[in-house]
TrEMBL record:
Superkingdom assignment: Eukaryota
Protein known as: Uncharacterized protein
Length: 625
DNA sequence: GTAGGGTTAG
C-alpha cells in the first residue's frame, strides 16, 4: 500500500476530517493539479465528510480551469445546500467559474442575488474579467462605471479586466483611455497591469507604443520580456526579436518555452538557421524538448530554413501531433515544391481524425498552387465549407487566385474574385498581378495593379511587379509611367538583398554591393560565371530566348553576388547552397539555373513565398517562368 | 487555512 492510499484510508476512517481534506485539495489546486483536486473532492464526499467554505473555492477553481460547466453547476448546488452561498470567497470563485465556462449570465445572476457583491472589489473583479473573457466590452465598461459611482475600491486586478478586451483591433481608443485611468490611480507601475497594457499595444499593432511602455517599466519580469518579444514576433519584426532576446540574456534572464517559441518563429521568418539551432540546444539544456508548442515551432523553423529532412524527423518523433504540427510540415513540403507529399500528408491527417482548420487549408491550397496541382486544389477548396463548415477567408481566395492564375486560368481567377463575399485584400489582387506576370497579360495586370495599390499604396513590390510586366512586353511607356507614379508618391524601391549563411554567419549582399571583405574575388568569380553562361550551349529553346534577354539586361543583382560568394567559399560538391532572398520574387532564377548546370552544384533559393531547388540546371518547382 | 488577474505555436 502506497503512502497516498494509506492516507486516503486514514482520512476515510476519521470523523473530524474536513481540515485534512481541505489541505489536500488546496495543495492540489495550487499546484494546478485540477483533475486531482476534483477527484479528492469526490473522495471527500464519499467518505461522508461535508465540504465547507474552505473546501469550495478550490473545487470550483478546478472546475473553472478544466472548463467543466456541468460539474460547476453541481458544485453550485452543493454550496447552496451547505449554506455557504453568502461566503464572499465561495461566491467570487463561483462567479469566476461561470465566466470561464462561458455561462456569463449565470455569473451575473449570482452577483445580483447577493447585495454584498456591490461592496466588494473582488466580486466586481471576477464579474468584470468574466465579461472581458466573453468579449462583452460594453458590459465591462458599464460595470467599471458602476464601481466608480458606488465608490468601490479599484485595484490592479480591476484594471486587468478592463485592459484585456482593448487588445481587440478597433478598441485601441478605449485602451488608451484605460491606460489613462491606470496612471490616474497609480496602478500603471503594477507589473501585471504593465504587462497587460504592453500586450494590448502590441496586439493592436502599436508596437512603438508598446516598446515605449516596455522601456519605461521599472521592474521587468520574464513575462514582460516575453510579451515584448512575442509582440515583435507577431508583428513580423523578426530582427527586433533576435536583438531583444540577446539583450534579455545579457541581463541574466533565463528564457522559458514562451520566449523560445517567439525566437524560433523569428528564425523561421529570417531563415536564421544557426540561431535556430542554438535555440534547439537551449531547449534540450533546459529540459523543454518535449514541449509541443516548441516542437511545432522547431518543425516550422527547419522547414522554412530549407532543412526539410530535419523538420520531418522532429515531426515524426512527436508523440502527439496537433493540427498546428501537421500544418507546419504540410506548409514545409508545399514551399519546397513537393506538393504531392503535402497533399498526401493532409489526407493522412484527416484519416487520423484531426479536423483541419482555416490555416491548415491555407497550407494545403498553397502547396497545390506551387506544385501545379490545380484540380486537387479546387477539390479542397470545395470541400472546405461543405464538409468542414469553414467559410473561406480572403487568405483562401488568395491561394485560389494564385492556383488558377499560375495554371493560366486568369479569367476564372478574375471571376472568382468578382463572385466572392469577403472583402478583397492586397494579397488577393497581388496574386492575380503575379499570375499576369507569368502569363504576360498586360491588360489584366493593369486592372489588378489599380486595385492592389488602392489597398496597399506604399508596397513597392507591386510597382516593381507591374514594371516587370511592361519590361517583358517591351512597353517602355508603361515602365516610365510606373516610375513617374512612384516618384510622385515619393516611393523608393527598397533595395532587394540576398544572403547566404556560411559557418554560422550571415553574408548579406545588395545589388552592386562592394562592401564584402572578399569583394574583389567575388566579382572575379562572377565575371567568370557570366562568361560561362554566355558560352553555354544546349539549353532548352525557351531558356535560350530568355538567356538572350537576360544577357541584354545584365546587372550585378544581389543573387548573383550571393552565388559567387557561395561558390568561392564552399568546396564540397554534395553541399547544398541556400540563398535567401527577401524580395517579392527573385529575378535571377535563370542565371542560377544555368550556373547550377555548369558547375554541377545544388542551389536552394528562397524568396518571399517559397523555395526553388536547382540541380543540374533543373528546377524542381513547377514554376512557369 | 479560503477569492479576483497577465504572456502561449502556423
Amino acid at each position: 500500500m502506497t503512502m497516498k492510499t494509506k492516507l486516503y484510508h486514514h482520512l476515510q476512517s476519521t470523523t473530524t476530517k474536513n481540515p485534512q481534506w481541505n489541505t489536500l485539495l488546496r495543495e492540489a489546486a495550487n499546484k494546478s493539479l485540477f483533475t486531482k483536486a476534483l477527484s479528492l473532492y469526490l473522495h471527500m464526499l464519499r467518505s461522508g465528510a461535508s465540504p465547507n467554505a474552505f473546501t469550495f473555492p478550490f473545487a470550483i477553481k478546478s472546475c473553472a480551469a478544466l472548463s467543466l460547466p456541468i460539474t460547476g453547476k453541481q458544485l453550485h448546488c452543493h454550496v447552496f445546500k451547505t449554506g455557504c452561498l453568502l461566503e464572499p470567497f465561495v461566491q467570487t470563485s463561483l462567479i469566476s467559474m461561470y465566466g470561464k465556462c462561458s455561462l456569463i449570465d449565470n455569473a451575473r445572476k449570482l452577483f445580483d442575488e447577493n447585495p454584498q457583491s456591490r461592496k466588494l472589489t473582488v466580486c466586481y473583479n471576477s464579474l468584470l474579467s468574466g465579461y472581458a473573457l466573453n468579449s462583452r466590452v460594453k458590459d465591462v465598461v458599464v460595470l467599471f462605471c458602476e464601481m466608480r459611482e458606488l465608490g468601490v475600491e479599484i485595484n490592479g486586478v480591476t484594471m486587468l479586466g478592463l485592459v484585456q478586451p482593448c487588445g481587440i483591433p478597433g478598441n485601441l481608443g478605449l485602451g488608451m483611455c484605460v491606460h489613462g485611468f491606470c496612471v490616474k490611480f497609480g496602478l500603471d507601475m503594477d507589473s501585471s497591469v504593465g504587462n497587460c497594457l504592453l500586450t494590448m499595444y502590441v496586439k493592436s499593432g502599436e508596437i512603438d507604443c508598446g516598446r515605449k511602455l516596455f522601456d519605461e517599466m521599472p521592474r521587468k519580469g520574464l513575462i514582460t520580456w516575453n510579451a515584448m518579444i512575442n509582440g515583435y514576433a507577431q508583428n513580423g519584426l523578426a530582427n527586433n526579436v533576435l536583438e531583444l532576446y540577446k539583450e534579455m540574456e545579457s541581463k541574466g534572464f533565463c528564457p522559458d518555452p514562451l520566449t523560445l517559441v517567439g525566437v524560433l518563429s523569428s528564425c523561421a521568418h529570417l531563415g536564421a538557421l544557426s540561431v535556430g539551432k542554438e535555440v534547439e540546444r537551449k531547449m534540450e539544456g533546459f529540459g523543454f524538448s518535449s514541449n509541443p508548442f516548441l516542437n511545432n515551432a522547431l518543425v516550422n523553423m527547419y522547414a522554412r530554413c530549407g532543412n526539410l529532412k530535419k523538420a520531418r524527423d522532429i515531426f515524426d518523433g512527436m508523440p502527439v501531433k496537433s493540427v498546428v504540427s501537421w500544418t507546419a510540415i504540410i506548409g514545409g513540403y508545399g514551399m519546397h515544391g513537393q506538393g504531392e507529399v503535402a497533399v498526401e500528408l493532409f489526407d493522412e491527417m484527416i484519416r487520423g481524425g484531426i479536423k483541419p482548420d482555416g490555416t491548415a487549408f491555407v497550407s494545403v491550397l498553397s502547396a497545390c498552387s506551387h506544385a501545379g496541382l490545380t484540380n486537387k486544389g479546387l477539390d479542397y477548396f470545395g470541400v472546405m465549407e461543405r464538409k468542414y463548415g469553414l467559410r473561406p477567408g480572403a487568405e483562401h481566395y488568395s491561394c485560389m487566385v494564385d492556383l488558377l492564375g499560375r495554371a493560366g486560368r486568369l479569367n476564372e481567377a478574375r471571376e472568382l474574385i468578382e463572385s466572392m463575399q469577403v472583402r478583397a485584400d492586397g494579397a488577393l489582387w497581388g496574386a492575380l498581378l503575379g499570375a499576369c506576370k507569368i502569363h504576360r497579360n498586360v491588360e489584366l495586370a493593369e486592372l489588378a495593379f489599380e486595385q492592389v495599390i488602392e489597398l496597399e499604396p506604399t508596397n513597392t513590390g507591386y510597382y516593381v511587379l507591374l514594371s516587370n510586366v511592361y519590361t517583358e512586353a517591351g512597353n517602355l511607356e508603361g515602365i516610365l509611367r510606373v516610375r513617374m507614379l512612384m516618384r510622385k508618391r515619393k516611393l523608393k524601391k527598397d533595395p532587394g538583398c540576398s544572403y547566404v549563411e556560411f559557418k554560422g554567419r550571415v553574408h548579406l549582399f545588395f545589388a552592386g554591393d562592394r562592401n564584402h571583405p572578399q569583394t574583389n574575388e567575388i566579382y572575379k568569380k562572377l565575371n567568370e560565371l557570366e562568361n560561362l553562361v554566355k558560352d553555354l550551349d544546349g539549353c532548352k529553346k525557351n531558356d535560350h530566348e530568355r538567356r538572350e534577354e537576360y544577357l541584354n539586361s545584365m546587372g550585378v543583382h544581389s543573387e548573383k553576388l550571393a552565388v559567387a560568394f557561395a561558390l568561392l567559399n564552399t568546396r564540397k560538391e554534395t553541399e547544398i547552397i541556400i540563398i535567401k532572398n527577401l524580395r517579392i520574387c527573385g529575378d535571377c532564377h535563370l542565371f542560377i539555373k544555368l550556373v547550377s548546370k555548369i558547375v554541377d552544384r545544388q542551389f536552394v533559393v528562397r524568396d518571399a513565398t517559397r523555395f526553388h531547388h536547382f540541380k543540374n540546371g533543373f528546377c524542381s518547382c513547377k514554376e512557369y517562368w
